[in-house]
Amino acid sequence: MKKIIEVDSLSYFYPGTEKGIEDIKFDVEEGDVVGIIGANGSGKTTLLFSVCGLLKARGKVVIDGIPLSARNFNGVREKIGFVFQDPDDQLFMPVVFQDVGFTLFQKGLPEDFVLERVREVLKMVGLEGFEERESHKLSYGEKKKVCIAGAIIHEPKILILDEPTAWLDPRGRRELLEIIKGIGKTTIIAGHDLEFIDKISNKIMVLENGRMIAFSHKEEILKNPSILKRVGFE
């Protein structure tokens, strides 16, 4: 299978602290769904931000053959759809149509084209007809779906989600599972919901204190109680 993400010697420390990630190396093949688990403060979000270029980490990141750098940042970001843990960090426009279509509007695409594409992705996430709804009045689960729609509208090759099941009820988690499966992209998911990650992923990465201590097919990770116990899952 083709490698779509290549990471080597990736490190980032927050200024004035020893917190961050250190010397992380891994590859993701096209079609993989990778779950990243670890205790609070283990570096999950930092790793996601570093892979996307939202943090200026040291080391090498190659996305679909393009090295991440200041020069190539826009080209790399085109290939990634990112969903933040808190939808209120992502939604900032008055209505759903504007929020979901923002990326395409930034490209100068005509409104009729954007509207049609917005309708398509809203249907994919189960929010058909929500175009004129006010974003801030939606339920938490609906906001999360709008964020996913906005992340995939430009048809990225990779979808990255930070703690997607946080504060969702069981029904919301089931719906999210089906949405991600239906999107069918190479996906990285960081989270504490081991049951969800088991159902959605084919590989699991384990982080501890900013270092990767395991990365393998999920069966090998889930059948290793010593690793799960180290990061608080046993």
Question: How would you sum up this structure, described in words?
Answer:
- With 234 residues, the chain is of the alpha/beta class.
- It folds into two domains: 1-79 and 158-168 and 184-234, P-loop containing nucleotide triphosphate hydrolases (Rossmann fold), CATH 3.40.50.300; 88-155, no CATH class.
- 36% of the residues lie in helices and 26% in strands.
- It contains nine helices and ten strands.
- The strands form two sheets. Strands 6-7-8-3-9-10 form a six-stranded mixed β-sheet, with helices on both faces. A four-stranded antiparallel β-sheet has the order 2-1-4-5, with helices on one face.
- A hairpin with a 6-residue loop joins strand 1 and strand 2 (20-29).
- Helix 3 (96-106) crosses helix 4, helix 3 (96-106) packs parallel to helix 5 and helix 4 (111-124) crosses helix 5.
- The longest helix is centred in the middle third of the chain and has 14 residues, at 111-124.
- The radius of gyration is 18 Å and the shape is globular.
- The two termini are 33 Å apart.
- The relative contact order is 0.18.
